[in-house]
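Late entry, evening session. Most of the bench is empty. Finally got around to the prediction I had been postponing all week. Sequence below, unchanged from the version circulated by S.P.
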Amino acid sequence: MGKKPATGRKLSAEAGSTTDPAFGYRAMPGIADEMVDTQGQVRPVWQGFLSAINRMSEQELHDRFARADRYLRDAGVFYRAYGAQGSGERNWPISHIPVLIDEKEWQALEAGLIQRANVLEEVVADIYGENRLVRDGCLPPALVAANPEYLRPLVGIKPVGGHYLHFCSFEVGRGPDGNWWVLADRTQAPSGAGFALENRVATTRAFSDIYAETHVHRLASFFGAFRHTLQGGKHSAEDRIAVLTPGPANETYFEHAYIARYLGFMLLEGEDLTVFNDRVMVRTVAGLKPVSVLWRRLDASYADPLELNQHSHIGTPGLVEALRAGSVSIVNALGSGILETRALLAFMPTICRHLLGEDLLMPSIATWWCGQQAEREHVASNISKMVIGPAYSRLPFFDDDGQSVLGSTLRSSAKVSIADWLSTDGAKLVGQEAVTLSTTPAIVNGKLTPRPMSLRVFAARTHDGWEIMPGGFARIGSGDDVAAIAMQSGGRAADVWIVSDKPVERTTLLPAEENFTRNMPGSLPSRAADNLFWLGRYIERAEGALRILRAWNARFAESADPKQPLLANVSDYLAALDMDTAEAVPESLLRNIDSAVYSASNIRDRFSPDGWLALNDLAKTARRFHERVKPGDDATHAMTILLRKLAGFAGLVHENMYRFTGWRFLSIGRYLERGLHMTRLLGHMSGPEAPDGALDMLLEIGDNVMTHRRRYNVNTARLTVTDLLALDPLNPRSILFQLNEIRTEVEQLPNAFINGQMSPFYREAMRLHSGVAVMTPETMNGDVYRRLENEIERLSDILAQTYLG
C-alpha cells in the first residue's frame, strides 16, 4: 500500500454541478453515485480502495498514473479518431480510477444479460427464418422490411452450428435508484474486448498493491472459453480460424490485431480471402488454405460485394455463397446487425414474454416507436421528458453524433409542431425517456470528481452457454455532459473490477503442463508476406540512405563546398534517389521510414510491441531532425543517432522474431535491398571516372574501413574495394553475401521445389548467386553492375509473382 509523505495534500471529493441534460441523460450532482448506495452510504466494495488512495499524495498518485500511461504508450495502444482534419491515431484515453462492482450485484446483472442474449438469438433466427414475430404482431413489418440492416440474401440461410450470435456486448447504465438499464445492444461487430484487457493491465500497473489485496475476478478465463469454443467450430485440423478486419483505417484496428495475437488467430482482410468451390480460402505463400471460422470485425453489408454492398472494397466476393454451402461459420452471423436497431428496444418486453414466457430481467431504456398512433401521441404529449432520434440508428443517443433532439431544449413553438413532425416521419423516429445516468469517480485536477458513466459488458457463447466477461470497461464522460462519454467526443475508458469477498481463481490462456503440445506456426497470408518483404526493403533502403548522407555531411562539414568533386558526385547519386543534400534529413528519407511504419502497421498482429515502439521512435526522431537540423556537422551527428535507432530496431527483430516463413520474407527484403544498394554504389563510385576519395567513402558507407586495412596489405584500390564490397562471401555488406543469404532463405520457403524441380524463384536466385560467385574483381565494371542491378530487381518481381500475387 502506498504511504503518504509527510508533505502532500490529500485528495478530496468534489461536488458536481447539475447541467442541462443532453441526449437523454444527465449526471447527478454530488459524490459519484457508484460509490454510494441509495441511502447515501459508501458501498462496502469501494471502502478499501478509497481508503488506500486517500492516503496517497497527489505526487504519488501522479506517478502511479504515469506508470499506466507509459505501459499503454509502450504497448502501442491507440484508437483512430475522426475529425474535420481527417483521421489520426490517438493514445488510448484511460480513466485511471477503476469502477468497482460487488460480485453479488454483478451476478444479477449477468443473469439479465444472459437472458437478453438468448432473446436476441431467438429474434434474429426468426427474422431470417419463419418471421413468426411479425406474423404474431410482436414486431412491426416496417422495422424489418425497411431496415437497412435487413440483408435479404441471408434469408433462409441457417448458420453452421445453429447459432447466429456468438459474441455480443451491451451498453448498460445505472439510475439513481441503483437499477441497471440496457441502453443499446451490440451484435454487429462488438468492439472493446481487447481494450478491456489493456485497461486491466494498465490499471493494475497503477494500483498493483491494491489489486493484489482485492479479490478481483480475472478476464483470461472468459477469452479462454471463447477461444476453445471457436476452435471446436473447425471442420478439420487443417482449417484455420481468423479475425476478419476492415484494415488499419478502422478506429479499433489495434484491438483487432491485439485480439488475434492474444488468441493465436490469423488477422485477415477481405482481400486475403477467396471463395473456391464454395469454400473460404486464405491466400498464403504456400497456396490456398481453408478457413472455417471467421470472427468478423467489419459490418456485414461490406462482407460480400457480390451479393451485399456492391461498392465494398473490403469484402470477399462469394462469402454469402460459402455460407449457403455451410462451409464457414461467421461470428456473428451476417445480418445480425439488425438487432442493434434502436426502435427494437420498444418491443423487447413483448418479444421476451412471447418467446420465453417471462419478463425481461434487465429492462431497456423506455422507448416508443413513433410508427404507431398511440405511441406518437404519448411522445408528443410528453415531449419535455423525451429524446427523439432515428428509429433505425444502431447507436445510443450519446453516440449518434447529434442526430437526436432533446425535447426539454425545444422552444414552445417547436414543441407545438412536434406532433406534425411525428405524424409525417413517425415510422423513422423513436422517442426515449430522458433518464439520469449515474456517475463514477474520476480524477480531475487532483480531485475525485463524479463523471457520467456507462458500462460496456461482453457476452461470449461457449460450450456451456453464454458467459459474461467479469468486468468489461466503463466509458467515462470528460464533463457533466453525457454526450462526452463517446470516445470521439473526448470520453475516457476505465477498468471495471468485479470484487468478491473471497479469493478468486487465477486463470491463464496457457495449457496445463500435462496437455503440452508444440503447435506449428500458422500459415502466412500473401498480404502479410508482402508487407514483411517491403518492411525489410524500406528499412534497408533507409539505412543505406543514412550511411550515404552521413558520409556526405561529414565531408561537407570539413570543406563547406558542395561543388567539391566528390560531394558533387555523391549529390548527383542522391538526386537520382530523390534526395536533396540541401536538406539534412531529406523528405524522401522520411517517406521511406514512414513506408516502413505503414508496412508494419498492416501486420500488427505479427509485430512485437517492442519492435513497433522502436520503429515509431525512429520515425518521430527523423521527423524532428528534418525540421531542426542543418547540413554539416549537426547532420552527421543526427545521421549517427538515426542509424543507432535503426540498428536497435533491426536488433529487436533479429533477436526476437520467430524463424519461420514471415522472418524469411522480411530477411529476403533486407538482403535484396542491401544488394541493390551496394550494386548501385559500386557502379557509380568505383569506376575509373570516380573522383578522388570515392573509394574511401565507399568503404566508410559500407562500414568496412577497418576490415579493409586488416585484409589487404595495400592502400585503398579499386580491385580491393571491389573484392571486399562485391565478392567477399564473408562480408555482411557485400553483394555476394546478400545473394548467398537470399539463396539460403529461398530453400526454406514453401514450394521451393515443385515435383522435384526448383521453383522459378529458386532457380533465378541460384543462377544469380552462381553468376556473381564466379566473378573476379577484374571483371566487375559499370556494365556488369547495371546488368546485376536489373537482375536483382527482376528477382524481386519473380518473388512477387510466385508468392505475393
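Two things to note before I forget:
The chain has a mean pLDDT of 88.
The CA atoms of residues 659 and 667 lie 10 Å apart.
Will write this up properly tomorrow.
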